[in-house]
Amino acid sequence: MDVSVDLIKIGDYVRLGESQSKGWKAHPFPKNNFLISNQEQVEIVKGLFDTVVIDCLKSTERQKELQQSANFISEKEETLQTQPSSEWEQLNSPTEKLSQALNCTLPAKEKAGMVVEHSAELISQLLSTQLTNDSVKGTVVALKGMVGNLISDPELSDELLKITSHDYYTYTHSVSVGFKAMVFAKHYLGTTDQTLLKELGVGFFLHDAGKAGVDPDILNKPGKLSASEWSIMRNHPEMGVKQLAQANSLSEEIEIIVVQHHEKLDGSGYPYGLKGKEFHVFGQICALADIYDALTAKRSYKEGMTSFNALLIMQQKMAHHFDAKVLSSFIKLFCEAPKAN
Asked: What's the CA dihedral at 21, 26, 29, 31 to 10 degrees?
């Protein structure tokens, strides 16, 4: 996997001779291929190279991360070992496809397809039944494991930007928004902090968790909602926060995203009518991805817009809803994003 040198760390097995560099023959290491064992080696590589090839199968820390993701059900069972095996745990067990998807040797397009398929199944299972503390906890653990393995793969990020909810359901929308917001957050915030990005990832994927408690007839109504129906719908951000808090799965970052993803900079959003700086950048990132996916997704009563038309509407009619820098960066990223074949 060819990555920017900014992403390398102790425990990575690098192949220097296979990368573009500033003169790799001059490096002081006895071999072109070796395991980075200390921070001094990290700094030397960063000083000489623009990118390096990381062999994930020989990288000790990345193998640990892969194993942690593949074994998330086992970790969950350790904490719940006094309880009987549930249907949720059986449905959520790591599949062979997921293990393959997290294998760094797969082509990015194939990997992305498998990860998206697993994610859709994961969110669908969560939102199709009444939320429980166990189902929420299990999903959060699964999402953190998955996000941890996506952060340092730029090729996969390109593929994930192509995701479109061809058939709009709450779970397909949640997955599409999750990946789009995740890629944009990493791009806009300019961070590789895994702890932060994992929390953000959980918030993005579960931003609509509160809709599990909303009547499906209201969620899927093709026409305009009545005043009473709209009142119920407007409660879903707070309902999501409440459910995540009950499951001890609510960090500050997750709470901001879940409760703010329908707010607007001018105070016309809900549930709190936040204004200006009260509307956090994390909430804005999710809101942008949420609107973009809603505009481009096909629904039973409308065709999805093209990416160009959706971004044009966001630029012309929603500029007062978001910070100008955040909106401009979002539009630029998705204008430049590679399109699906």
From this structure: 80
Residue 17 has what pLDDT?
A: 63
Q: What residues does CATH 1.10.3210.10 cover in the chain?
A: 61-336
pLDDT at residue 20 in the model: 46
Rounded distance, CA 209 to CA 119, Å? 14
Name the CATH superfamily housing domain 61-336: Hypothetical protein af1432 (1.10.3210.10)
Return d(Cα 319, Cα 328) in angstroms, integer. Answer: 9
324 close to 316: Cβ distance less than 8 angstroms:
no
What is the spatial order of strands in the sheet that 13-15 belongs to?
Answer: 2-4, 51-54, 13-15, 33-35
Quick one: CA torsion of 277, 283, 286, 289, rounded to 10 degrees? -20
Question: What mean pLDDT is predicted for residues 29-47?
Answer: 87
Q: Which residues contact 52 (CB under 8 A, 6 or more apart)?
A: 2, 3, 5, 8, 14, 15, 16, 19, 45
Q: Which residue has the higher pLDDT, 274 or 80?
A: 274
User: What type of residue is 20?
Assistant: Q
Residue 302: which of 165, 175, 170 has the closest Cα?
165
Residue 70 is predicted with a pLDDT of 44
pTM of the model: 0.70
List the one residue out of 241, 254, 263 whose CA is nearest residue 321.
263
